[in-house]
Design goal:
This protein is mainly alpha-helical. The protein is built from four helices and no strands. Helix 1 runs antiparallel to helix 2. The two termini are about 20 Å apart.
């Protein structure tokens, strides 16, 4: 069961890598727009994160860190909102605001850091 939990954790980090990687390609490629790959990375990270938040396969003496789970969930929802707002602006033919675009990258890096460090 512990091996399965580590695999789900790996998939969770892969989701953030896909999200951050697709953001970095846009950021340093000069286009600065929201892509479908960002949505896919966000979905992978969200589903795997929710699977990790379930208390399955933990030893009896281990407690869940609900503050960490709540913080990461709020950040994930904000990233999703920023991606959604950026996508809507693009569909209307407007550009993505720089603060909105850079917020996606910074919050994604912060969420991945929380997953690893906290």
């Amino acid at each position: 069961m512990e091996t399965l939990r580590h695999i789900v954790l790996f998939v969770h980090l892969i989701g953030f890598a896909v999200l951050f990687g697709s953001w970095a390609v846009q950021a340093f490629g000069g286009k600065r727009e929201v892509t479908r790959l960002m949505n896919i990375g966000l979905a992978i990270a969200a589903v795997a994160g929710l699977a990790l938040a379930a208390p399955w396969g933990l030893p009896a003496d281990v407690t869940m860190n609900y503050a960490k789970i709540g913080t990461k969930l709020v950040i994930l929802l904000v990233i999703g909102a920023l991606i959604g707002i950026g996508s809507a602006r693009q569909k209307r033919g407007e550009g993505v605001a720089p603060a909105l675009f850079w917020g996606i990258g910074v919050l994604t890096a912060a969420n991945a850091a929380l997953a690893v460090i906290w």
